[in-house]
């Protein structure tokens, strides 16, 4: 599911690139980078969760991964909205 969302985000970024200027493109790329960094961090936490034999720790790590991913998504979305508003 995350891969699909990431692919759609990339496609949207490409579509935006076709009709925007360099400053807007850079700002959108920065927002995409925030999202990608959150995704990488969440993936690392999920791998850590999958490798533990402690069920409570696994659940805690998965909750933390979800929180990291949601925070990055929220920040990225806010950045994209601000860019769209500014340009």
What is the strand and helix layout of this fold?
Layout: H1 2-17, H2 22-51, H3 55-86
Overview of the structural elements:
The protein has 87 residues and is an all-alpha fold. It has a domain of 48 residues. It is built from three helices and no strands. α1 runs antiparallel to α2 and α2 runs antiparallel to α3. The protein is elongated and about 50 Å long.
What oligomeric state do the depicted chains represent? single chain
Parts with pLDDT < 50 across at least 5 consecutive residues? none
Gap from first CA to last CA? 30 Å
C-alpha geometry: elongated
Rg over C-alpha atoms, rounded to the nearest angstrom:
15 Å
Main sheet?
A: none
Work out the helix count: 3
Find the count of extended strands (DSSP E, 2+ residues). 0
Helix content: over 70%
Mean pLDDT figure = 89
Order of helices and strands: HHH
What percentage of amino acids are in beta strands? under 5%
Secondary structural class: mainly alpha
Essential attributes:
single chain; 90% helix; 87 residues; elongated; mainly alpha
Question: What is the gist of this entry?
Answer:
The chain is an all-alpha fold and 87 residues long.
């Amino acid at each position: 599911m995350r891969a699909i969302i990431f692919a759609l985000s990339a496609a949207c970024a490409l579509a935006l690139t076709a009709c925007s200027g360099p400053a807007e493109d850079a700002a959108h790329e920065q927002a995409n980078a925030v999202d990608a960094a959150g995704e990488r961090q969440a993936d690392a936490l999920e791998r850590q969760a999958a490798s533990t034999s402690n069920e409570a720790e696994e659940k805690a790590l998965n909750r933390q991964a979800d929180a990291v991913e949601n925070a990055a998504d929220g920040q990225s979305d806010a950045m994209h909205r601000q860019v769209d508003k500014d340009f």
